[in-house]
């Protein structure tokens, strides 16, 4: 029997089960917001913070900076002192995830933010990469 690389590879590929669904294991959480007068509240703020494994104070600081408004956390809710649509909030949240959650090397969400001296790093639990990122 003479096996070459191509025939062995073809045999191995035939034995791998076909993935019928293209499922990502990480789903970006959806923001549940409500406008109350001149304020906007994100009702599921602590829930989305825990799903992305981030400190609520870091995420609230990001929203405060991006919208240039004061924010406060009351219970499970983040309150922004400005009217914002759910779509605008969701877009900013997805920008946060892109910049501060996904690993820059392997693009997996299994990361933590770590501050060393005055530099903020994204440390990946999946691949072990450590990359510097901009300040929040």
In brief, what are we looking at here?
By secondary structure, this protein is of the alpha+beta class.
- Whole-number radius of gyration? 21 Å
Helix fraction? 25-40%
SSE arrangement, N to C: HEEHHEEHEEE
Q: What is the CATH architecture annotation of the largest domain?
A: 2-Layer Sandwich
Distance between the termini: 62 Å
Question: How would you portray this structure in words?
Answer:
The protein has 136 residues and is of the alpha+beta class. It has 2 domains: 30-101, Alpha-Beta Plaits; 104-136, no CATH class. The chain is built from 4 helices and 7 strands; from the N terminus they run αββααββαβββ. A hairpin with a 2-residue loop joins strand 5 and strand 6 (119-124). Helix 3 (56-67) packs across helix 4 (86-100). The N and C termini lie far apart (62 Å). The relative contact order is 0.13. The model has no long low-confidence stretch (mean pLDDT 88).
């Amino acid at each position: 029997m003479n096996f070459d690389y191509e025939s062995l590879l073809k045999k191995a590929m035939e034995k791998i089960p076909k993935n019928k669904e293209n499922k990502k294991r990480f789903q970006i959480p959806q923001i549940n917001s409500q406008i109350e007068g001149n304020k906007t509240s994100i009702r599921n703020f602590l829930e989305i913070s825990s799903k992305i494994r981030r400190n609520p104070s870091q995420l609230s600081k990001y929203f405060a900076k991006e919208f240039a408004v004061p924010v406060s956390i009351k219970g499970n809710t983040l309150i922004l002192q400005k009217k914002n649509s759910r779509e605008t909030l969701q877009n900013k949240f997805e920008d946060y995830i892109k910049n501060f959650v996904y690993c820059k090397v392997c693009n997996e969400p299994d990361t933590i933010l770590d501050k060393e001296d005055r530099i903020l790093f994204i440390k990946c639990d999946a691949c072990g990469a450590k990359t510097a990122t901009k300040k929040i």
